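User: What would this chain look like folded?
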Amino acid sequence: MSVLRLIALGLLVPAWACVPGGGGGGGGGEGGSAEADGDAPRPDAATCDPDCGDRICGDDGCGGTCGTCDDGAVCSIDGACVDVAATCGDGMCADGEDCATCPADCGQCCGNGACEPSQGESCATCAADCVCGPDETCAVEARRCVPRPPDAGPVDMGRGDGGPIDPDRGVVGPDMGGPGGPPRILTLNANRRTVTEGERVVLSAVVTDPDGIGDVIGGVLESPEGASYGAFVTAGEEGAYSLTLTWGDLGDVQPIDFAQGVDEVRRLDAVFYDQGGASVRQALEITLTCEGDGACDGACTDLTTTDDCGGCGLGCGDEVDGIACVDGACRCPPGAGLCDGVCVDLTAPSNCGRCGNACVPRVACMGGECVCEGDCLVPRRGEIQITEFMADPAAVTDSNGEWFEISNTSGRPLRMDGLAFGNPEAIPDNGPDSIRLFAFDLPADGRLVFGKREDQATNGGVAVDVVLATLSLRNTDDEIAIVNADGVELDRLRYVLPDGAEPGASWQLDPAAEPGRPWPAGWCQSPDQWPGSRGDRGSPRAENSACP
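Assistant: Here's the prediction, encoded as structure tokens.
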């Protein structure tokens, strides 16, 4: 801090800087001694008799106190304890409140740049406002300016910050001013070490001086870079000082900006001076917090919203429906993906794991895949169908080459456990011309071929999955059924072949045919041979052709 800045704060009062009769700076005016304010004449600086009169609190005229007030009351200018206004602390300087009765709303009297004797200010009680003249010095006990002794020489106006900060003692300036050395900070505390938006922090200090407490002229609170938070004011007790800072005050000196969940630790330096210009400095740290949120120019702000995503003012916009702020970035929420410019849930069956991957009914989406488990595997009527049969082969005899095909049309795996296939009259008793299967799953769109013979050299070249040696399909009319373990019929085909039907061609169901169709709707003879056929036409294990 430069010499000019210290004088502007009213903190350095050198012995050579006064004239007889000079008043305090600021509001003191020229010739504005304490006597000019209508008070009783001040006692001589060399001797002082305390005089409280009717005063029950405040100064006793000699730097002491006439008493203190109970909590909830303050000492008025005339030395009476008065109740603090009920509205003190609401942020508004209301009627009946002033800087003495409600500094929280109306500000501190000392340090406002005006020397106000009516508020009890003088060069001793408020050096920040009341500065002696060029040839005067402040008689602290008398609380007034007195002529400078003729032999008083100039003093070094150095700031006195020539060493590292000791958390217990601070930085002590050069040994100047009085013979005993610079001031000493006995204690420096804050009523809270963690401050958030809307709160105040009160710093209190107790200061002494080897040359007597009257040698201390005041102190300021600074940032490590020298920016001022304001001047300390006397706190009633001898050598006691205090300074109240709001969250806004802290932000005015240094902007309060920090990321989500990252608090700011701020160092505050208390600096006290004596009349000789010596100083002492001590540091104190407080934590500025938004309790998990971030701070944007002093305003606690949730930086995980789409308005402020990862930083102040970094909005996500509204171009993408469903966009969210995830880990400080604008993206679709966890489990969602961007599909055609919209964030969609990729854990839902409609878009399972990827856009457009829809699961069929009763199939769950698990881990991004359509999964059918438990009851989902149980086939229901219409989900497994008879889709092709060969009743009259030409390449081999009927006893070798008859077969039929069933297809899973459900779109999901189906459990074959307990299902019976073949002649509906034989199924209830597991008789000839029927067969019952056990636990295995038929994949979605899977097909099974039931035939009389497994050997493709003798069965016409058909790849048979299930051998049903007693299978018998009449060339004129017959029935094939699928029945579950509870006797519920899942599908039944009743066919009547027309006269003149061509041998050696299977009958197939058109893929577009509706379930539950009556014969012969949707049925026609296969037009092409299958791979490996001995000459007959059909499409066992393969998708059927469309009927003309």
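The radius of gyration is 50 Å. If you want, I can go into more detail on any region.
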